[in-house]
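Meet today's protein:

…
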Amino acid sequence: MRTLIQCLLLVCLFHAANAQNTTWLKAKSGEYQYSYVKNDPMKVRFYILKNGLTVILTENKEIPRLQTIIATKAGSKTDPKNHTGLAHYLEHMLFKGTNKYGSLDWQKENPLLDKIDALYAKYNLTTDEEKRKLIYREIDATSGEAAKFSIANEYDKLMSIIGAQGTNAFTSFEQTAYINDIPSNQIDKWITIEAERFRNPILRLFHTELEAVYEEKNISLDSDDDKVSELLFAKLFQKHNYGQQTTIGTIEHLKNPSLTAIREYFYENYVPNNMCIVLAGDFNSDEVIGKIDKAFAYMKPKPVPTYQFEKENEITKPIEASVYGPDAEYVSIGFRFPGANTNDARLLNFMSNILSNGNAGLMDLNLVKKQEVLEASAGAYTLQDYSVLFMDGIAKEGQSLETVKKLLLNQIKLLQSGHFDNNILQAIINNYKKSMIKNRERNSGRAFALLESFTSNVSWEKSVNELEYMSKLTKADIQSFAKKWLNNNYVCIYKRIGEEQNTKKVVKPTITPVSVNRDAESDFVKNIAKQKVSEVKPKFLNFDKDIQRAKSSNNGNSIDVFAVKNNTNELFTQIFFLKMGSFHDKLLPIAMDYLQYLGTSKYTAEEISQKFYRLASDFSVNENEDESYITINGLQSNYEASIELFEHLVRNCVANEKALKNMIAGMKKKRADDKLNKDIIQNGLAVYAKYGAVNPFNYGFNNSELDKIQASDLIQILHQLTSFPHQVLYYGPFDASTVSEKLSKLHPLPKNFNAFPKVAEFTFRKLETPEVLFANYDMVTSEIMWYRNGGNYDANKMPTTRMFNEYFGGNMSGIVFQEIRESKALAYSSFANFGTPKYSSQPNHMTAYVGCQADKMSDAIEGMQSLLTELPKSEKLFANSKLSLQNSISTSRSTKTGILIKYLNALNKGINYDMDEKVYNEITDLKYEDINLFYNSNISSKPYSLCVVANESKLNWDVLKKYGDVKKLSLEEIFGY
C-alpha cells in the first residue's frame, strides 16, 4: 500500500537503503536537504520538497544547455477501463495553455469551452448515429467560435522564444513525460512557464487535437510492428493492463472522449507526490532548487490510488498467434519476468546480453555470424510490475518462421547448459562500463536514466553500484536463473504476409478549420519575452585551432591525422575516412557487409567478434555514395589492441565461399523485404523525383549479377581498403602527435596510394511541369511528399535559408504545423524544409510532407499546396523565430567527433569556417521581406514532384490528376530489381 503522501515513498527507499548499510547519504545546502549516492560519477542530488515533489539534479558544465523532464507516474496502465488512451491524449492537451496563456480573452472563451464540455457529455451518451452527427456539428461550430478567442501553440512559441530544442512529450505504460532541451541562461523563464503549464491546463482546441490522436491511431494500425507488439503483450498479460490496454486506446474510446474524465485524471495523477522534475546540464543546483520550490509550491499533495492488479496465471505451455500485414515476415517471442525493482530484473538484463549483444552473444555468434537466420536479436524490457525478455528473428529465403522459432529457443538451451564463453561475463561488465560512460556524456542520457529510475521505483543506488553487482555473478547463477524462468512458458507471435481481417480505422470527422491567431500574444507570453536574461556568448569553431593536426608516416608514405582531445573520460573514437563509396565501386558495400562473416588464418569470424567484445571495443564499416567510414570505438586503455585487431582482420581476412553464398541469399531476401516496407518505398520515390528513372536508389546489381560475385574480388577490396588515400579522424585522450606516432606502427601504409576508381555520375532533374509519382501499398493512411530541386548552393544565402526554415517548417510553432495540424487537423505529422546539398556543386532542394488518413488526402494536398504557393505573413512569428534561432546558436556547441564531422562538411561546401558564425551574425539584420523574397524565388508556385504512397483502392485519382501527370511506378522501376 502507498502512504497517504506519495512523496514518502522515495524517502522510505533512502531510509531502507541506509538501514541495509548501503551507500545512500544525506547532505544539506542552504535550507534544502538532499540525498545522494556515494561515489556516484554523476553526483546526482535527490530532493523531495515539502509538497512531495521530487526534484532530481545532475550538473554537467560541458555546454551551456540542459535537458529537462517533467514526469508523472501515470501512463496507459492507469487509464480508466472505459477511457483507454486518456493519459496519452491528456499529454497532447498539456500543450494548449492555461487561462493565462493560450487565450485572447478568457472571459469570452470560457463559456464556450463549458458548452463544448456539455456537448461532448451529450455526444457520449447518444447512440443514434444521426443524432451523434448533429451533436458533432454543433461541437465543430462551437469549437470554431471558441477558437476565435484562443491562441494556438503559445506553449510552443514560448519554447521557441527561449531557444528550446526537442520540445516533445511521450506516454508509456507507467509514465507521461514532458521534455525540452533549453539554454542554461533561460532556466528561470522555463521554470515560470512549466509551473504555469501544470497549474490550470485548459482543454481548448480539443476536437482538432483529438483528430491528431486519431491519425496517430491509424498510423499504428498501419504498423505491423505495433500490431505484433500489441498482441504479444495481450497474450503475456491477460489480466494486467500492460496487455489489456494500449497507450493510444481503443477506437471506440477515442470516438467517445470525456473532457470531464480527462480533468479528473489530471487532478488525480498530476500531483506533486506523484511527479518529478529532472534537470541535467549547466546550472547551479543550490540556486535552482529554491526557484523550483517557490514556483511549484502551489501544488498540493493528495493520495494517489495504487494501481491494483491480479497476479498473472503461470504460462504452462507455449501460446502462439499470428499477425497479418504487408510488411516482411518475422517471429517474436516473449517471456514474462518479475518487475524492475527485483534482482530477477537485474539478472534478466545481464542474461539478455549473453543471448544477444550485437557482437558476441549466443544469437550473434550461432545464428547471425553463422547465417542460420537472416537476423536475430534479444533484449530485456523492465517495467514496474513485470519485465519481458524479447527474442526476434527474421527467416532466410525459403526458411519457415517455425524453424526460426526453434533456432531462437535452442539458444536458451545452450544458455541453460552453460555452453557460452566463460569470458563473456567480464566482457559484459567492460561493455556496460563503456556504455555508462557514454551515457553520462549526454545530458539526455543522464536525464532519461534518472527518469526511468523514478517511474520504475528503482533506487538510483542500484544503477551506481551495477558494476559491483555484475562482478559477483557467476556462470552457475546464469544457468540456474535461465532454468528457472525460461521453459515452455513463452508467447510466440508470427508476423506473416497477408491481409489482416476486420481492419478498422478511425473515420475522419468533419472539421471546419479553426483560427490560430498566430499574431496574437497573451500578456503572459509578453512578460516572458521581455524578461532580461544573462547573455551566453556563442562559441564558434576555429578549425585551425580546435582541430589538432599531424601526419602519420611509414613505408615512405603519410596520411593526415585530425584530432580533438577528450579531456572528460577514457573513451576514444577513431575513423578511417576515405573519399570513396558505392559510386566508385558497386562491390564496395557488399565487401563491407562480407567482412562481418570473415575470419583470418589465425581467428574465426566468431573469435574476432568475441575479442572485440572483450576489449569493450566495436567497429563499424559504413559507406555512402562517395565516402566510406571505418569507425572504431572503445576504451582508451585498449586502443592499441583494438587497432591491431582491426588491422589484422582487414588485411588478413580470408574468403569464405559458404558465407558469401548465404550472404547473397540474405541480400536477396532483404531486398525483397525492402519492397514490402512503405518507408523505404517512399524514400525510393523521393530519389526518383530527385534524379529520374536512373538514380542512386536503384543503382546496383540485379539478382543474376549478385550470383556472379566472386569472393576473391571482395577480399581484394578489403585487403586494399586503406591502399587508397585516406585520413584519420580521432577523438580521445591522446593528442594528434601521439595518435600519429601510434599509427605509424599500427597502421601500415603502401608505398604509393591507389587511384580512386572513376565515379558514377547522376543528373539532377530540372522539373518543368508538376507531376505525381505514385506507389501502391496496402495501408489505412497515405504518405505524401513534395520534392523539387532548386538552384545551386550559395553559402551567402545560408542565413536566409536557416531563417526561412525556422519560420516556415522548423518546429511546432512554425507555419506548416500551425496550418496543417492545429488549424485544419489534417495530419498527425507534417513538415517542410529547404535543404542544402552535401557539395557546393549540387542543387538545393525543397521537401514537404504530410502523413494523413486516406479520406483526407484531397484536403491535405490542397492545404500544403496553398502553403507552397503563398507564404502566410506574421511579423510576430518572424521575430520569435529569429530569437529562437539566435538563442539556439548562441548556446549550441560542437563537441567530440562532431567537430571533425563539421569540418569535413564545411570542406564539402567549399568553405573553411563555421557556418553557424555567419548565420548568427547576419540574421540580426534580416527582415520578413527577406524571407518572403527567398520564398518567392525558390518555393512559390514552382513545379513539384508529388510522391504518394497509398492504397490505390482507396484513392480518388481525379484528385491526384489535378496536381500533375500521374505516373504509377512499379516496385521494379523504383528499386531497380
Observations:
- The CA atoms of residues 72 and 270 lie 6 Å apart.
- The first strand starts at residue 24 and ends at 29.
- The first helix runs from residue 8 to 19.
